[in-house]
Amino acid sequence: MIEPLCHQGLYSVILVDLPGFGRSSGRDLNQASWKRHAPEIVVAILSSFHIDKPVNVIATCGGSATTVRTINRYPLWFRDRNLLFTNSVIGDFGETKAG
Fold first, then answer.
1. What are phi and psi of 35, to 5 degrees?
2. What would the pLDDT profile of 7-48 be if each residue is shown by its tens digit?
3. How confident is the model at residue 81 (pLDDT cuts 50, 70, 90)?
4. How many whole angstroms separate alpha carbon 70 and alpha carbon 42?
5. Which long-range contacts (C-beta less than 8 Å, at least 24 apart) are formed by 13-22?
6. What percent of the chain has pLDDT over 70?
7. What is the per-residue pLDDT for 15?
8. Which of 22, 27, 52, 83 has its C-alpha lying 20 to 30 A from 63's C-alpha?
9. Does residue 87 contact residue 60 with C-beta atoms inside 8 Å?
């Protein structure tokens, strides 16, 4: 799904594997700990690319849940954008919705 977007040259594509997933390191990390901080990790990644406008997101499975948590904490990053989530299972947020 992502590869055609990369080759078209119409989008800048950032692929992220959070700790313990995909090809990232960190398989022994405490998942409860990084899940709490995942929105900050996502925003730090976006900030490192000097992105200063809302972004489009395609996410699946745990990435969907992480993205929803990130949107909940940082809604301006995603305002009026295209969001595509698949196979998303989202548990208790443990926080209130951003105002």
1. -60, -35
2. 777 677 777 777 777 777 666 666 676 777 888 988 898 889
3. confident
4. 7
5. 14/45, 14/46, 14/49, 16/42, 16/45, 16/63, 18/62, 18/63, 18/66, 21/62
6. 63
7. 77
8. 52
9. yes
